[in-house]
Every structure is written in structure tokens, then in C-alpha cells.
Amino acid sequence: MTHKPKLLIVEDEAAILRGLTDLFTLQGFYVESEQDGQKGLETALAGKFDCILLDVMLPSLDGFSICNKIREVSREQAIIMLTAKSSEEDIITGLTLGADDYIAKPFSVKELLLRVKTILRRTGFNENIKTLTLGENITIDCVHLTGQVNGKEQLFTRREVDILSYLNKNQRPIPRSELLAQIWGYNDPSEIDTRTVDIHIAKLRKKIEHKASDPKLLVTYRGEGYKLCL
Ligand code: CA
To answer: Do residue 27 and residue 109 come from a single domain?
Structure first.
């Protein structure tokens, strides 16, 4: 028997939940669902899921709090936030808390499937690297996702470590589309409209730069991409 990917959907709107459950079941997923935030968190922590879809507005506990609490326990868990389209703030908050990706409502079924399948097809870019050393002041344990940055402990997500490893290996400005392809695994990044990369870079700057607003390590080259300057 082949392994069915396990998906948890936390969504309180019954019609959307039913639609998503049918969709992913038909696509060969094993689907569990919760309509309540607190229950969603408990289920998320109790089971091993390949991916969790998290709505933001939920009864008893919102999606951001759920994401935050999952991250306290696991920085490997794949999480996609379902955000309100208009809410840029939602997107930034969600990704700051450590979601791997977001999709804005109303979303197309095709795009959501693409996002989930992409997350499952982890590129595992840094699988062989145990320790990532960036300059003199940053050392990251790529197995446990912990690091020392300027003498202080810092926690990273798998995705963040993948980005740093990739930039470190390729000492040139890397375009956003290349990061989407190499780190997120999108085969055709042009069909994705997402600020995920920018937001992950912003998060990384907060973690590794002395001053995130004036980056010296993770530098933007206008029109070219991001480069790690060590
Ligand atoms: Ca909702």
C-alpha cells in the first residue's frame, strides 16, 4: 500500500471545508478536519500530518495562534495559511509566525492543490549539510534548526535554513523566481503570484542582521535578486 499524504484542514466554514475535504480526498489524500480553533490545535499536535491548512478566523483560537503553538513544538511541520485576500497584514503575520506559505481567499482550487503538492515535494536542499557557518558570527545547526547569531540563540524554520544554504552556496544575486523554484519547488514560478519570498527574506533579516532595515548580509540587488554578502 502506498503512503497517502496526511492533510489536516482547520476551517470553520462548513461549505469550504466540505469542498476542500472532497477535493483532497479525490486527489488521494487522507484528510482530517476541525472547525474549531482549539480542537484544530489539539489535532495538529496529536497527529503526524504532511501538511496543515489553517484558516485565520476561527472560533476559540485563531489560525495565527495555532501556527505559533505548532511552531513551539515543531519547526518542520508544513503549514499553509488561508488568509483573507485583502489582508496584507494577515499574510505578513502568518509568515512571520512561521507558516511555509499562504494562499489568499477566494483561491482557485488549482492553485491550492499546486501549493500543497509543492510543499509535500520538499526540495530537501540542505539535507547533507549538518552545520551552516556564515561568516564569523553565525552558526546554524541544520539538523535541529537552532543557531548562534552574534552570541545569541536564534531559532530557524526549515525553509529559512534552506534559503540561507542556497544563497551561501551560490554566491551571486539570486532572483525571486529561482528561489521559488529551488526552495519551494514551484516548477513554473511565473504562475504563482506570491510575496512569500520577500516575507521570508524580511524574517531572515530580523534574525541575522544587526539592523533589519539596513541589511549588510542579506542584500537586495535591484532587478537581480538577493545575495548573501559575508
Ligand atoms: Ca473562518
So the answer is: yes
109: three-class secondary structure by DSSP: helix
Residue 201 domain flag: yes
Does residue 206 form part of some domain?
yes
Q: What is the pLDDT of residues 93-150, one digit of tens each?
A: 767 677 888 888 888 888 899 889 888 876 545 456 789 999 999 999 988 889 999 9
Q: Quote the ligand 1 centre to 194 CA distance (angstroms).
A: 21
Strands 79-84 and 101-105: parallel
The domain in which residue 219 lies consists of 131-228
Instruction: State in Å: Cα 154 to ligand 1 middle.
Output: 32
Evaluate whether 17 touches 25 at the Cβ level (below 8 Å).
no
Contact by Cβ (8 Å): 84, 112: no
Distance 169 CA to ligand 1 centre (A): 41
